[in-house]
């Protein structure tokens, strides 16, 4: 493998870890919108509609290329969109614990599907990363009665969201030549469409007070959309195609760590030994897919000598 390809992979690993971490603070504007009088499903819609409108000029400029990309690009955008919509909406119908646990089975689905469909092997580092990541998640969420199974519509939505995201990650891996910008725009538009449909079904009667609330929050939602949401989606769209879907799934688990820490700082949630251990395990999971490949790239001869010894 050429050095620039290796560097690109390592950068992609860092990009996915960063995108996951940034996703860990998206709950803050969602909660603020809900507190401002915009119901949960409509809050999700608003956070995707605004970036979609911001990106409209780019869509018009690149419309010919987006159209020429055909069905595969739309399959990627729609699967990413429906996964994000299902995950966001799942929190309305179930508790956070079940939603997060069932969604973040992504590394398992992603690695298995890549093995079957893309014929990509499941490496030792990947297995270790999956075990560490899931262990950290279980520790943070304080699972003392075994792993939860789906019990209601919200649980099934979270589980389906993780599976569909794994499909999307495999599609991105299968068609890596698409521009990240085109993936980002189609992702926002599909997610906006799905979110509006779900919002209308769950809250069909939108009163004047909700419309007024939307205008009142635009002053801070616009910069969040431009400075946070669009970069998150772009970084994820750029990094994911370059990595095995199981690997990207592990790296996106940084969302759990950042969400835990930010919730502690902003909502007085407890952050004790359990949370520290969980965050440490998730960080270690990411390191197996970031640091070890970098070390083996920079010191290949040393890695081979160590491998022979063991």
From TrEMBL:
GO terms for cellular component: membrane. The keyword Zinc-finger does not apply. InterPro entries: EamA_dom, EmrE-like. Keywords: Membrane, Transmembrane, Transmembrane helix. It comes from the Bacteria. The chain crosses the membrane at residues 12-30, 42-61, 73-94, 100-118, 127-147, 153-172, 184-201, 213-236, 248-266, 278-299. Residues 14-141 form the EamA domain. It holds the Pfam family EamA. PANTHER family: ACYL-MALONYL CONDENSING ENZYME-RELATED (PTHR22911). This is Permeases of the drug/metabolite transporter (DMT) superfamily. It comes from uncultured gamma proteobacterium HF0500_07A21.
């Amino acid at each position: 493998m050429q050095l620039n390809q290796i560097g690109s992979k390592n950068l992609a690993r860092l990009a996915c870890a960063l995108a996951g971490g940034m996703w860990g603070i998206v709950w803050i504007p969602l909660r603020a919108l809900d507190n401002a009088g915009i119901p949960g499903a409509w809050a999700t819609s608003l956070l995707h509609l605004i970036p979609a409108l911001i990106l409209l000029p780019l869509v018009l400029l690149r419309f010919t290329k987006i159209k020429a990309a055909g069905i595969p690009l739309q399959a990627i955008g729609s699967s990413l969109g429906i996964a994000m919509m299902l995950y966001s909406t799942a929190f309305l119908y179930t508790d956070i614990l079940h939603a997060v646990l069932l969604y973040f089975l992504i590394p398992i689905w992603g690695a298995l599907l890549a093995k079957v469909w893309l014929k990509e092997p499941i490496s030792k580092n990947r297995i270790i990363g999956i075990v560490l990541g899931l262990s950290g998640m279980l520790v943070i969420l304080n699972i003392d009665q075994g792993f939860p199974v789906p019990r209601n519509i919200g649980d099934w939505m979270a589980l389906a969201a993780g599976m569909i995201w794994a499909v999307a990650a495999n599609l991105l891996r299968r068609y890596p030549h698409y521009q990240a910008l085109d993936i980002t725009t189609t992702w926002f538009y599909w997610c906006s469409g799905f979110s509006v449909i779900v919002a209308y079904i769950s809250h069909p009667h939108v009163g004047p007070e909700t419309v007024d609330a939307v205008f009142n929050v635009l002053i801070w939602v616009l910069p969040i959309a431009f400075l946070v949401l669009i970069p998150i989606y772009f970084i994820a769209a750029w990094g994911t195609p370059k990595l095995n879907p199981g690997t990207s799934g592990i790296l996106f688990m940084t969302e759990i760590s950042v969400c835990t820490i930010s919730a502690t700082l902003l909502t007085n949630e407890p952050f004790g030994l359990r949370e520290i251990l969980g965050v440490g395990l998730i960080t270690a999971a990411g390191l197996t897919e970031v640091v070890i490949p970098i070390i083996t790239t920079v010191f290949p001869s040393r890695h081979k000598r160590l491998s022979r010894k063991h």
